[in-house]
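Justification of resources, computational component.

The compute hours requested in this renewal are based largely on the per-chain cost of generating structure records like the one below. Each record pairs the submitted sequence with a full structure-token output. That output is archived, and it is also reused by downstream analysis tasks.
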Amino acid sequence: MSSPSSLPPLLYLGSEEVERLLPMGECIALMERALRDLALGAAVQPLRSVMRLDGRPGLLGFMPGQLQVPVDGSVAGIKVVSIFPGNRERGDESHFGAVLLFETETGRPIAHLDAAAITAIRTAAVSALATRLLARDDAGELALLGAGVQARTHLAALREVRELRRVRVWSRRPESARRFAAEESARHGLPVEAAPSAAAAVAGADLVCTVTASREPVLVGEWLSPGVHVNAVGSSVASARELDSAAVARSRLFVDRRESTINESGDFLFPLREGVIAEDHIQGEIGDLLLGRLPGRRSAAEITLFKSLGLAVEDLAAAHHVYRQALAQGRGIRLAAAAPHLP
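The structure output for this chain reads:
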């Protein structure tokens, strides 16, 4: 019978620990490995399940998965997240939740991590990976539509893969854009400007990230300049979209997971229902690009689009890395140990 002291610790890791132990550059490398493994079939990635709360303007999302990882061989887990877009109007975060990790020999839980911090970092890291693969090498004029947490992490992430010369940010709340511009200019030492409109932010940009909670398009296809790369991030449900149909139709579309896109992405499903695009408009997954199965950008004038939905395997890769770093550094709060086997 195993003694309690021989069992792996069950760690709680909050947002500060996650942010400390998951630097953006390391997370981009983790996302590359996770999406490559997914494309090779070395991961389990079911569709997410979403429950609408009865009488409340919010959702609960459940995202399970399993992934091959260093040291432990394999890890399984689930992200449970609440989504309340209206919170932003009250100055609160729109997403809360937990990532739960389980080792796969006995099924014991090994870690409970703050999901908001994991999501903020890994989402931007995947966008940076897509940008590295699809944007022009000289791209450096960034437009951010949205001025929240994801705008902040996307600015940090894209700086890892491109030399940014200028950043413009737009928000439906002008004061949010102005505050973001002032804070991020000081943080990164580069010019960040608050734009008076989404169109003004996008004009002439060669990198665009949509990171809003909008249910209606905030990015219009006719605004896109030749050669621009777009990361569409904010919408993760079939009933909402950030891009109008023309923006999608004008672009070569790449996704994190094809199955998820055709079931969950309003940015894809709206133009599909309108007959503007067909299902084969999806060129492939980011993993396909990593494995050289299809070409990325084919010309300097081509418009490329990465539609990000977010995948459990991304959360698991990031969470397991944080867990291993916490063990090595003696960080985190040890919770009650899992019960030993009975004789």
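The radius of gyration is 20 Å. The mean pLDDT is 93.
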